[in-house]
């Protein structure tokens, strides 16, 4: 229930974009090492239902780490969490952005290992 897209919780029609929403939340946990249950008072069924209601009806999303909001990876995750499934990226686009981010980090790491001798 913690990773459920709002439209699924509200029992509205849904498609593969609900999986994009869930992916965004799991990726958040992996990147921040912070579980969604950390935002709950207790890990009970009532608390899980309350959390799902906040996500579905109040557009609650986990906080983006300070200073990260404009980074491509966090922009992608915020798109994955969109309340409107039509605004969420496809998983193909998710993979493309993640690949670009990874290649950018690899290029940056290679550049930092280069030493110039004068």
Structure description:
The protein contains five helices and no strands. Helix content is 56%, strand content 0%. It is globular. It has helices spanning 6-9, 17-32, 45-58, 72-80, 91-113. It is mainly alpha-helical. The protein has one domain (6-113): Orthogonal Bundle (Transferase(Phosphotransferase), domain 1).
Give the arrangement of secondary structure elements.
Layout (H helix, E strand, L loop, with lengths): L5 H4 L7 H16 L12 H14 L13 H9 L10 H23 L5
Helix pairs in contact: 2-4
Briefly, what is this?
By secondary structure, this protein is mostly helical.
Shape: globular
Taking all Cα atoms into account, the compactness measure Rg is: 17 Å
Task: Please state the oligomeric state of the protein chains shown.
Answer: single chain
Please tell me the CATH architecture by its name: Orthogonal Bundle
- Please mark out the parts with pLDDT under 50 across 5 or more consecutive residues, or reply none: none
What is the N-to-C order of secondary-structure elements (H for helix, E for strand)?
A: HHHHH
Count of helices?
5
Q: Beta-sheet strand percentage?
A: under 5%
Q: Provide the CATH superfamily.
A: Transferase(Phosphotransferase) domain 1
CATH classification class: Mainly Alpha
β-strand number: 0
The end-to-end distance, rounded to whole angstroms, is 60 Å
Largest sheet: none
Write down the domain tally.
1
Look at the helices and sheets and give the structural class. Answer: mainly alpha
CATH-defined topology: Transferase(Phosphotransferase), domain 1
Helix content: 55-70%
Mean pLDDT comes to 90
